[in-house]
Amino acid sequence: MGNPSETERAEALTEEEMKALEERFDSEIRFRPLPPLLGWIAGGALFILSCYHYYTAGYGIPQATTHRGLHLAFTLALIFVFFAVWHQPREPRRGLLAPLGMPLLDWVFAIAGAVSALYVPWIFNELAFRVGDPLPIDVIMGTVLIVVLLEATRRAMGWPLPVIALLFIAYAYFGQSMPGIFAHPGASWDNIVNHLYLTSQGIYGTALGVISTYVFHFVLFGVLATRIGLGQLFIDLASALAGRYSGGPAKVSVLSSAMLGSISGSSIANTVTTGSLTIPAMIRIGYPRHFAAAVEAASSTGGQITPPVMGAVAFLMIEYLGVPLTTILTAALVPAFMHFFGVLVQVHLEARRRGLRGLTKDELPVAWTVFKAGWLTTLPLFVLVAILLSGKTPYLAAFWGITACLLVLVIQNFIRHDFRTAITESIRETWEGFVVGAKYSLSVTAAAALVGVIIGVVTLTGVGFKIAYMVTSVAAGWAQSVADSLAFLPFELFSVATLTLLFTLIMTAIVCVLMGCGIPTTANYLIMIAVAAPILNLLGVEPIVAHFFVFYFGVLADITPPVALAAYAAAGIAGANAFKAGNTAFRLGMGKALVPFVFVFSPSMLLVTDSFTWNEFFLATIGAMLGIWMLSAAFSNWLFAPLRVYERLLLAIAAILFVAPDLYATLAGAIITLPVFLRQIAGRRQANASSS
Predict the structure, then answer these.
(1) Residue 683's pLDDT is what?
(2) Nearest 5°: phi and psi at 204?
(3) In sequence order, what are the residues at sequence separation of 6 or more whose Cβ sits closer than 8 angstroms to the Cβ of residue 643?
(4) Are 192 and 246 found together in one domain?
(5) pLDDT for the residue 2
């Protein structure tokens, strides 16, 4: 037999191969194999951690420092069980230097992390007398925890975040040696540890609090909702609704990723889950392999900006902004729609240009049949959303959402099995769901605690305001230079203030994307709101707008080469060139890059800002949709028929004018677009007449 085609190879991938692919590109779930006894012990610890959070979500969370310390202690100990020193899989060791099959060094780290994490809750009643004047034992314990956190995060997520944390710590210590405005008196090691370890502005701060109070519960909910079949229901419904249209599998990818993203906050997990079905189908009907991979990656990254979970960032926002969750979810609606609209328009134009078919009736499920078979799995999501919208706390909503998942799981087992088997299966699947949910939360907890170190240094040294001053000064200088070069015009094209904000946004966006290349979205967001958000606030940008801006560009890193992990995972399924898939995915996700600039200049797009007006909302939203459509056509070389070179250039210029949230710019874009539209309509009529 000859070698199988790339399509056949993609279709032949097993569930185990898909899991291996996800682990290859997502270091957060790259767990090492454990010997049986240690595996059972670690599994029991994970189950206890999930049970603790499930109980406290429904019946009350303990005092903040105690709650955060317990969560951190469990997490650090388990990270050194599940993550090896290096990522290469190795068989468990045996002997005196590896009790229960785990190296002695890992035991030391695990115990040291747990003890040092629990120390602060242990001395909590005396903490008020220790802050500012730590005892030697406090400094020792704090130093141990910082070292353990650095190593735990390196194992779970790689080097970038620990290196950044070390640089911030060095900045705090060597402040007197820093140049220019970055110089500060410096802090002794005792003072650094005091601030990072004993106060609520460091490791035990808001970031860790949100992870232990909200995020863990929603990770667990997402895992359980997927296990009862809600994710598969979304994929099947998307196939039934969108599969018949031109380029159907690509549209299924967009729609299913949008729905799956509502319960999953992981770009890579979303890519592998839906891509295992949609990518082979896209290749089969004629999409190039790299384009099929790009569609799935660009669609899947939308999960992190899709309510209600939003990759856990929604819950961080409610703490840092002090607004209800409903405000955050409302603000996210239009920008999330814009992202999926942008991807959908491009896959449609590409399908029309290539003359690609939709799926046949025999290849499609029936929507009613799908929903009738799986409607019960939607119950937990409806419960979750209903309680969130009622104004109750997010963790209470998660509690009832998880409870609904467990109820559905039990009902499903009683439908499928006899009484005894149903009980057994329900216990087994509950155990597995709780274990996996806790397991998936380990890395994000370590990252949040280490980001607390970075935020602590920012508050200790005031470096955030210094960076803000430097960036705005540079942007103002560039803006003045551009304004001077345009002084010959009889009218003011752009004000200095507008140009200053624009250049500041561009610099901030670049930093967010670069940071996101090596740091997960949640950690990236936490760092950027400490460093970049003050920059935008200095220029009068509303806090919720600034937070959404840095969040969106952090997410964009998942499809931005050279570290476009979601695109590379999709390329692995498609058998495509990874870099080419990444470049195409970035182009498909351009809505996510354009829209943040729109809602900074027209905050009404977020619906909940202080300056909201309906006129501004419709102008910004309709203009952004037209701009995305025209730019998509220019990239795809197709509107209603093939485009000429000058038409593509005109559409690109018109797109920029449409996106600019200004009535006169929108009208100018329409004027530029009109002759292209007329020529395209005539060309399509001519083509239709020729074919008939």
Answers:
(1) 78
(2) -90, 25
(3) 633, 634, 637, 651, 676, 680
(4) no
(5) 38
Residue 591 DSSP label: H
- For the whole model, what pTM was predicted? 0.87
Range of the domain at 346: 214-448
Which residues, given as ranges, of the chain have pLDDT below 70? 1-28, 87-94, 265, 311, 493, 518, 690-692
Tell me the C-alpha distance between 548 and 333, whole Å.
Answer: 12
Same domain, 139 and 50: yes
List pLDDT tens digits, range 585-624.
Answer: 989 988 888 899 999 999 999 999 888 999 999 999 999 9
* Per-residue confidence (pLDDT) for residue 14, from 0 to 100: 61
Helix axes 64-82, 36-59, angle to 10 degrees: 160
In the numeric block, the tokens 């003359």 are attached to 355
What gap in Å lies between CA 306 and CA 339, rounded to an integer?
Answer: 10
Q: What confidence score (pLDDT) does residue 21 get?
A: 66
> How many other C-beta atoms can be found within 10 angstroms of the C-beta atom of residue 532?
28
DSSP secondary structure string, 70-94?
HHHHHHHHHHHHHS-SSSS--PPP-
List Cβ neighbours of 62 (8 Å cut-off, separation of 6 or more).
56, 70
Alpha-helical (H) ranges within 3-63 are: 6-11, 15-25, 36-59
The per-residue DSSP string of 609-664 comes to STT--HHHHHHHHHHHHHHHHHHHHHHHTBSSSBPPHHHHHHHHHHHHHHHSS-HH
Whether residues 94 and 142 fall in one domain: yes
Question: Domain ends where: 397, 428, 448?
Answer: 448
Structure tokens at 252: 């299924």
